[in-house]
């Protein structure tokens, strides 16, 4: 059943309007060149508390550039009339926010303390027989960050690459963020349920939660609503594809047909708010989420906030203590991933929401 969610005012959400209204002007500043190029071409931000969305605004451009001039380190600007403005319902390539959907399914189907090899016998090779599902979800499996699946021509060869991979650190000894973890979770889920990941997410998350815009491999008819990504070329990219727009940006997910446990989903800010609200209603699960990370949560961190970021410029934060949520979707790799410059805009938005919560509480005390 879809969680209730509606647009309302700051007082209805229990948020201070002056503090919350700092978010949009601050983000707009990051859309101006500083010093050479903007942090992103455009953005959609959504913030709410309880069942009320108090802020949902779009700014900038979903499509601004036709390419990237490497020699000049600048985007090749489209004529203004050809650009596509950002809209509140713009679809974004979520990149690693996809991991949160995979992790949510894992909580429903997999025992977190079970060895992964119990679900996937080939996974036991190369010293991985004791790696648990929990270690995959919290990135303590010992895996390196990634593997070149994009160089493997068949699904069987991609799987074999993972089976042969040995941990570079003893499992459980240290945390190293790795896409391989959630790719493995995908294989385990598909083995246990007999259903592919895209169908699992549709059947158990997007349809029940009313997330009508969330999907892998969006159809071409949705292209006018999709934010453009980068002019993807070697050497900074692993593939040579030109301007990526409407297909998954991540090269490994692209090689996997656009559906992977670590990347590939497209969605909107409103759909992600529904996802946040549903998880709050269920009390989690929060396995697979980053916890209390001020680098992108700002002052929301410290009281149990959870969230994640995506390479393409996406992020979400959920604060279970206050029942609040913040979604910030940008195309910060448009026209080049070399323009990505930290998470200061995300942290600033998180701080504004945290202060809006605190000031509203103080005013009603």
Termini distance? Answer: 35 Å
The main β sheet shows up as: 8 strands, mixed
Structural class: alpha+beta
Radius of gyration, rounded? 20 Å
**How are helices and strands ordered from N to C?**
EHHHEEEEEEHHHHHEEEHEHEHEEEH
Beta-strand level of the residues, as a percent range? 15-25%
Question: Helix coverage percent of residues?
Answer: 25-40%
Q: How many independent structural domains?
A: 2
Work out the number of β strands: 15
Total number of helices: 12
Q: Low-confidence parts, pLDDT < 50 over ≥5 residues?
A: none
Instruction: Sum up the overall morphology in one term.
Output: globular
Mean pLDDT: 96
Assembly annotation? single chain
Account of the 3D structure:
This protein has helices spanning 10-13, 17-20, 23-30, 98-109, 133-137, 155-164, 179-193, 197-206, 251-255, 269-282, 294-297, 344-364; strands at 6-7, 42-49, 52-63, 65-69, 74-77, 84-85, 92-93, 215-216, 231-232, 242-243, 265-267, 290-291, 306-310, 314-319, 324-330. It is of the alpha+beta class and 365 residues long. The protein folds into two domains: 6-90 and 268-364, no CATH class; 101-201, Methane Monooxygenase Hydroxylase, Chain G, domain 1 (Up-down Bundle), CATH 1.20.58. The strands form four sheets. Strands 1, 2, 3, 6, 12, 13, 14 and 15 form an eight-stranded mixed beta sheet that branches. A three-stranded antiparallel beta sheet has the order 7-11-8. A two-stranded antiparallel ribbon has the order 4-5. Strand 14 (314-319) and strand 15 form a beta hairpin. Helix 4 (98-109) crosses helix 7 (179-193). The longest helix is centred in the C-terminal third of the chain and has 21 residues, at 344-364. The model has no long low-confidence stretch (mean pLDDT 96).
